[in-house]
Design a protein that fits this description.
Elements lengths: L8 H19 L9 E5 L6 H4 L8 E2 L11 E5 L5 H4 L7 E6 L5 E6 L9 H13 L6 E5 L2 H6 L10 H9 L1 H6 L4 E4 L7 H11 L4 E4 L3 E6 L2 H23 L9 H10 L9
Parallel strand pairs: 7-8
Antiparallel strand pairs: 1-3, 1-6, 2-5, 3-4, 4-5, 6-9, 8-9
Helix pairs in contact: 4-8, 6-9
């Protein structure tokens, strides 16, 4: 069967980047078995040929009505599919979906009837919010970074801004490349509407959100951008835990150091993309 990617090199490039990120997630140990999800908005790369493609599976409910996604197209990792397999065969382990005109259902149009991730309500709700806010962000990535998840098991670190301050202070790059810090969502059942709603509240102000005792979700211009933010935050978590394992609490940069850095580099305090 001919893949939809064959005559669409730009679309193939975007989905191949998703595959590359999936490989990194697996290599880092952040994507055990079928853990983690990636959803990317591909609407800007869709032409009339793709728009004419029929559904290859029955329409499915999103769980929400998302008015800004009318007629939008996404590539989504499949439910039960492994990142390590997606890295090698993205169109066998994910699919292209189209949001219907009622903005409450989607249908699969290519290449195979691979049901999208169970976290589809959360991811599509995020993309709806991004479009509504005028953001150019195209990607949402959910994964299970080991050190960040470990830190979420300490309730003392989950107060407003506590974990962000610790992570920013570990290494200058974290403040530079994750300047909006880390939002926190208290534990919610995976795949639930409650998780989606709580995530939306945090994603308004943060590009990366921690799901307590579960993982993180990040948004970015593309899948690599979202991955990079998780990567740098987890590096700080690793540094913190290494210091604790050596028997001391790391000092970190001072508030003065971080304030000076924010001013010198004119770091954003809200989403600009």
């Amino acid at each position: 069967m001919k893949s939809v990617l064959e005559n669409h090199p730009k679309l193939a490039e975007r989905i191949n980047e998703v595959a590359e990120v999936a490989g990194y997630l697996w290599q880092k140990g952040w994507a055990e078995r079928n853990g983690g999800n990636i959803v990317v908005n591909i609407t800007d790369l869709v032409d009339d040929e793709i728009r004419r493609l029929p559904a290859i599976a029955p329409a499915a409910p999103i769980g929400f009505t998302l008015p800004h996604l009318k007629g939008c197209y996404f590539y989504a990792k499949g439910t039960g599919k492994r990142m390590r397999d997606l890295a090698r065969r993205p169109m066998d382990n994910g699919s292209i979906i189209r949001v219907l005109n009622d903005c409450a259902h989607y249908e699969i149009i290519a290449d195979n009837p691979v049901k999208p991730t169970s976290e589809t309500p959360s991811h599509l709700s995020i993309h709806n919010m991004l479009i509504a806010s005028g953001s150019n962000y195209k990607a949402s990535v959910h994964t299970h970074p080991i050190e960040l998840v470990a830190m979420s098991h300490n309730s003392e670190l989950l107060g407003e801004g506590v974990l962000t301050k610790i992570l920013w202070s570990m290494i200058p790059e974290t403040l530079a490349f994750a300047p909006l810090g880390l939002g926190i969502v208290p534990y919610r059942m995976a795949g639930s509407n409650e998780l989606a709603e709580a995530t939306l509240e945090q994603i308004k102000d943060h590009d990366v959100v921690m799901w307590e005792k579960h993982g993180v979700v990040a948004v970015g211009m593309d899948a690599m951008d979202a991955f990079d933010q998780i990567d740098v935050l987890n590096k700080s978590a690793n540094i913190y835990m290494c210091a604790k394992n050596m028997g001391f609490t790391p000092e970190g940069m001072t508030d003065k150091d971080m304030t000076e850095m924010q001013k010198v580099y004119n770091l954003p305090t809200k989403r600009i993309g």
